Batch of 3 targets.
Target 1
Amino acid sequence: MSTPTATRLQAADASVTVLSNTAFVTDWARRYFGPWWNAFEALASSVCAGPLVTADLDEKAYTDLGALVGSCPHDEVTYAKVRLLLARDSTGTITGVCQDEGLTYRSEQLGGHAAFSGRTAEPLALATARIAREMIRAALLRDGWTLLHASAVVQGERALLTFGSKGAGKTTTALLLASRGAQLLANDRVFVKAISDDLRVLPWPSAAAIGLGLLDALGLYDIVRDRLQAGEQLHPTQHQDVTDALLAGRREPLWEPGGKREQKVQVFPDQFATWFGMQLATGGRAAALLFPRIDPASDPAVIDGDRTLGEDDFMSGATEDRYPDHFGLASGINGGGSDLARATVADRLAALPHHQITLSHDIQANADFLAKLAGDL
C-alpha cells in the first residue's frame, strides 16, 4: 500500500488539506496552488481536523460507489463539461460518479469533507484541485470576501485591477504589466475584502487562457512552442487542437466549430514564472482601476469616459456554469459573496482612481504606456 501524502493550502484565514495515497495528487496541488496560495507539504499523520479532501487511487472504491449510485434514486447533471450522476441520502451526504473520467465523489459534514476515488491519477488530481479550490472559496466568501471579474497586478503592495468584458484587454493589460516588472496576481478573477481602511486582494488560482494571436503578439509564442517541442506540457484542459496548432507553428486564432468561442492555450500558474519569467503576487491592496478597450486605429492613451463598476464586474453563482455547487460546498452563499460584502467593496472601489484607456495593436507601445501609467498611480 502506498504511503499517504498531504498538502495544505492556505489563503487568508481559509485552509484545506489534501490527503492522498498517491503523491501525484498532492504534488499537483502544491504545483497548482503554490505560486498564489500558500501550498506546502504536510505530514499525513498530522491531518486530524479541519476542511479535508481525500483522494485515492482505488479501483474497488470507485466500482462500489458507482454501483451504489446506480442502484438508488439519482440525478443526472453536468459538471466540468462531463456527465455526473448524483445521489443524496438522509444524512445529507452527496455521492457522485463520473464514468467518463473514472471518478467518484462523496461530500459530507456540510462540505467539511470531500472524498474521491479514481481509476487514474491525472483526472483524480484535477478533480481534487478543483474541489479544494471551491472549499477555500466557500470559506473566504463566508468570511466576508467577494469575487471580482478582473485581472490584477501588484507593484509593492499596490494592486491595479483591470475590468472589462471578453476581448476588452484584461489579460493583455495584466501580462504586459507583468512583463515590465509588476507581479501577476490574477488573470480573470480576484478575491477582495474591505479590511480596516484597505481593500485587500487575493489571487484565484487557475490555468490562464491565452489565445494564439495574443500569445504571439506578447512575444511568448516561441517560448511555449519550444517548451512543447522539448516534451513539456501545458495544462491538460487545453484542447488537443491547440497543442497541434502550436507544434505546427500556427499563430492565428483558433476557433471552435461555429466560430463562437476561441480555443486558447491553457497555462499552468507556475509556468508564468518558469517559462515567462513573470513574478506572481500572493496579495496586495487595491489602489486603482483600469477599463481598457482595444482600438487598432488609436495610440494607447487615457481617454474620457464615465465607465463605472457594474453587476458584470462581480462574479456570482450564475457565472459559475462549469462548476455548479452540486456537492453543497458553498451551501447558502452566493458564488460571488454576500450582498453586504459586494456593496461594501463596490463603495470602496468607487472611491479609487478610475482610468479608461485605449490599447492599440502595437504591443511595445502598449507596454510603454501601461508601465508609465502604473508608475504614475
Note: The chain has ten helices and 22 strands.
Target 2
Amino acid sequence: MAKTEPIIRYNLIIKKLRRKSCDFDEIADYLALESELQGLNLQVSKRTFQRDLKAIYTIYNIDIQFDFSSRAYFIDFEQQPELNNRLLEAFDTFNALSISERLSKNIQFEQRQAQGTQYLHDFLNAIKNKVFIEFNHQKFWDTNSETRKVQPLALKEFKSRWYVIAKDTKDGKIKSFGLDRITNPKSTNQKFEEPESFDVNAYYKHSFGIIGSNGLKPQEIILSFHEYQGKYIKTLPLHHSQEIISDNSKELIVKLKLIITYDFIMELMSMGENVKVIKPQSLIKTLKTKAQKILNHYN
C-alpha cells in the first residue's frame, strides 16, 4: 500500500462523517467507490476501520463516536469545538488535491512550493506512535547540518511551509523545525511519553506564525487599515483574537492580543502603506527603524 493511502483514507472518512452519520457498510461502500475513482486501494475491513478511528483521534484529535441505537458512526461537533473551519478547510483541500492528477488542466497550483512535504507521513506516524525520530537539520544561516533526535508532538503549517513541533533531546526545549530544512528522517523504536502540559493550540494561542510564546506575554495591538486593505482583513483575519473597533468608509481599526514576533512584523511590513500601527509604541518604533533601513537602500 502506498504510504499516502492511509492518510487519504482518514481524510475521506472524516469528509463522509462531516455530512451525516453512517454505518460501517455505508463508509466501506464510499471508500470502495473512491478506490475506483482515484485508482488507489482505500478499502477497509472492520478491523482496519477500527484502527483508522484510533489513528484519526491520535493525529487529528477528532473523536469519531458510535451510536449503538442507530448502529452508526458520527462526529459530535458541539462536543468538539476545536474542529474549526480552518481545520475542516484543510481536509477539503487535501481531498481535492488527491484527485488533482486527473484535473491537471483545470487546477492552477502555486509554482513556488517549499520542500519537505514528502516527510509529512514520516512525522505523522512518529507522532501517532509516540516514538523518537532522528533527522539532519540545517539552519538557513549555517553551512553544516546537525543531527537531531526529538520527541515529535505536532505538525504546523505557516505560509506554505510545514514545521514539526518537537521536544529536542539536546536541551529538553520545545522547538519548531522546518521540514524544508530536514533530510533523512528516521523513526526509532524508542517510545516516549507526551508531555501532559503540552497542547499545540495553547502553545500558539497568542502567536502569529511559527514562533511560540517562549514565556513572553501577549500585548494589546491596535492597527488601522486603509479601507480596501480592511476588506481583506475582515475576510481573512490576522489572528483569532482580532476584534473590530471601528469600520467606516475611510478605515478599519482592529484590536489584537498576541506576542510581537518577527513573523508578525514581517506580515505588517508586507502591507506597506495600507496599515498603520496605533499601539504599542514599541512596535511603532520597530517598524520605523525597518522602514528607514529600506529607504537607506535607495539613497
Note: The two ends are 60 Å apart (CA to CA).
Target 3
Amino acid sequence: MRIGRLTLSFLSIFVLLAPQGVSAAEKLPALGADPARISISGLSSGAFMAVQYDVAFSASTIGVGVVAGGPYNCVYVNLGGIYTCMQGAPVGQSSYQAAVGFAGLGQIDPVNHIAGQKIYLFSGTQDTTVRQSVMDAVHDFYRAANVPASSIQYVKGTAAGHAFISDDFGNGCAITQAPFVNECTVAGALYDQPAAILTQIYGPLKPKAASLSSSPIAFDQAQFAGALSGMAPSGYLYVPKSCQQSAAKCAVHVVFHGCLQSADAVGDAVYGKLGYNEWADSNGIIILYPQVDKSSIPFNPQGCWDWWGYSGLNFQTKGGAQLSAVHAMVQQLVSQ
C-alpha cells in the first residue's frame, strides 16, 4: 500500500533492537507437507515480497501470484527508487540482471529455475498506488527469466483499485481503502482471485468447500524472526483437516498481506475472509499467512513487507531477515 515519503537512509535501515512483544501460544507444526508443491502470492508490498521469495528460493517454488507489486530488487536498479517502483516505469530486464548477479554470488538460487514456474499477475485499471507500468515490468522480468508466455496469466483490464479481489467479501471494485479487499465483476460474475491464482499454479481445482473443516490458528513467529526483522509476534495458518496428517503430503501456499493490512490492522480480512481457505480445504493446500506489523523500530510505519531495505541491505536475498524467516516457516511445515 502507500508507504509515504519513506527514504533509504542508513538511519532507517541500521536501527536498534526492538522489543519482542507478546508471542502467540502455539508453535508452527511440522506437517510433512510436499516440498515439491510450494507457492506464494501477495498484494502490494506483499506482492513485492512474493516476487523476492519466488526469485530467492526459485529451486523450491513452483509458482507465484503477484497482485499490484513490482519486479525484483526494483529500488536498486531504477533511478527514482521507491517512487519509480510504484508510480513510474521500472525496467524488468534490469531486475533480471540483478537476480543473475545475486545468483552468481550464491545469495539466491540459480535463476534458471524461474523458467519452469507458473506466474499469475494482476493490475487494476483504477489502481493509482502501484501503476500498471510497474506490473508491466514484473511481466517483463519473468519473460527475461525465460518463463514462456503460456505460463504467465496477466489480468489487467479490470477496473479495480489497490486490493486483493474476493468473490464474496470487500469494498466496491474501484475503491482503495481498508481492508484492501474488493469485489469485482468480470464477464458477468464476481471474480474469485484466490481461485484464479491457485488454478494458475496448481492446475484445475476441485470445487471450493461449502464449509471449512478447520479454523485458522495463530502461531508464534518469534522462533523464526529476530527483532530486526520487523515481523509481528504472531502469524496465521490454515490447515485443512485432511492435511493434519503428514501422510497427506499437502501443498503449501504462502500469502503475503499488503501495507496496513496485517491482522493487527484489518483483523481476519486476509487470513479468514479473502477466500483462500475454502479452496485450500477441498484441494489439500496448507495456507501460511506470515505477518508484519507497523513499527517505529525498525522504521516501518505502515506495516509493509521489506522491499527497499529497512530490515537490512540483504533484504532481497536468502539471508534477508524476512525472507529467511518465512522460508524457515515453510521448511517447518514440510518437515515431519
Note: The CA atoms of residues 8 and 134 lie 20 Å apart.
